Amino acid sequence: MQLEQELKEKTADIEKLLERMLPEEAGLQKTIFSAMRYSLMAGGKRIRPLLIAETYRFFGGTDMALAEPFMAAIEMIHTYSLVHDDLPAMDNDEYRRGRKTTHIVYGEDMGILAGDALLNYAFETACRAFEEESEHALRIGKALKILADKAGIYGMIGGQVVDVQESGKAVSGEVLDFIYRLKTSALIEASMMAGAVLAGAEEGQVSRMEQIAGKIGLAFQIQDDILDVTSTTELLGKPVHSDEKNEKTTYVTWKGIEKAHE
Q1: What does each C-alpha distance from 135 to 67, 69, 196, 250 come to in angstroms?
Q2: How far is 196 from 77, CA to CA, in rounded Å?
């Protein structure tokens, strides 16, 4: 119960941080600010910013002003990926985190732009760390590179590309692991690596965090596969049987429920 309470308090702090980092809803382009807010503040577990914070503290980081811009940035990147994932051209989902998806509320055009805006604004936000802590510019630069690499074509986007390409086809376990390692694990790896780098961890320690996070990400995605089959839309906050609808190979279709649980 103590852990649950602590998790609840830290998640609430992240919600406040995200609110603080979002742009003011003003100006002729305020629709995009509204769509960004709607997408980002729809709830969620906030696992990635939590992992940045906890890894930063684990390696001796004390000044949260250095980590906070990255905590907000990683959640913006994660959210943009969900906004685009839900679009008609991708998974065509109408619900996310228990409410209507961004493109359903704001239209497909603003759904695309809201995702674009969150991705770009994530890096604008992460760069605020330079204003807070100029003496750690090298650490900030390294953390930015990790964020860019893991969110890009050799990370999350690369995994999504293969996932989309292979929808409707039976894929091997090797290809499935490749998709999961990039699509899901990459941002979790970025979180733990960035937290370590910002705290001044050694290169070997950062590599160890990458390995650990890769396994966490894989476990996370396998559990998501299981929930897509066993849960309900009400509990999950998004449509179930989405993988079946999109004819995707998952750990459940590959190994069965029991082996997936193992």
Answers
A1: 14, 16, 17, 46
A2: 19
The CA radius of gyration of the chain, in Å to the nearest whole number, is 18
Residue 226 in contact with residue 260, Cβ under 8 Å?
yes
Beta carbons of 162 and 24 less than 8 angstroms apart: no
Closest alpha carbon to 244 in 91, 103, 88, 85: 91
At 106, list the tokens: 């704001």
Supply the pTM of this predicted model.
0.93
Distance between CA 32 and CA 120 in Å, rounded? 13
Amino acid at 29: Q
Q: Which two structure tokens, joined as six digits, stand for 15?
A: 């919600």
**pLDDT tens, per residue, the chain with 262 residues:** 788 999 999 999 999 999 999 999 999 999 999 999 999 999 889 999 999 999 999 999 999 999 999 999 999 999 999 999 999 999 888 988 889 999 999 999 999 999 999 999 999 999 999 987 668 999 999 999 999 999 999 999 999 999 999 988 889 999 999 999 999 999 999 999 999 999 999 999 999 999 999 999 999 999 999 998 887 766 666 666 776 666 788 999 989 999 999 9
Burial (CB < 10 A; 0-12, 13-18, 19+), residue 254, is: middle
220: left (phi over 0), alpha (psi -120 to 50) or beta: alpha
Q: In angstroms, rounded to a whole number, what is the distance separating the alpha carbons of residues 64 and 66?
A: 5
Tokens found for residue 207: 């590599």
